[in-house]
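Input chain follows. Return structure tokens only.
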Amino acid sequence: MAPLPSDTLPDPAVSETDPAAFWRAIERIVNDSELVIDRPAGSHHPKYHHVVYPLDYGYLADTSSMDGGGIDVWRGRSGSLEPVAIACTVDLLKKDSEIKILLGCTPQEVETVLRFHNSSKYMKAVAVVRPGTE
């Protein structure tokens, strides 16, 4: 196994424990990636046809997530690409967990996403809302 490049190792002089650093990192991933909406609001899940997406749902191209695809995103009706929250999900059928970035969602839309992910006994979610966007 090749050693990690020195710029990827922890630097004790740079100790960003401020939660704002996390949100800046999320912004960078969003800004540096192409947003692909493959399930527009009102569309049906390809496998579970009774499931209807209440908001635009897609992923960030050229990123990776637990399921091997891109990082999942929900986009609010405003169309804004500002990350306002993440949904941390657990899928008991797939036995995995992921985050989903919520872009431009109002507080009501964040609740809509949570209801969507918590509507099955097999999937559960909580939201981490970015401070100042509530």
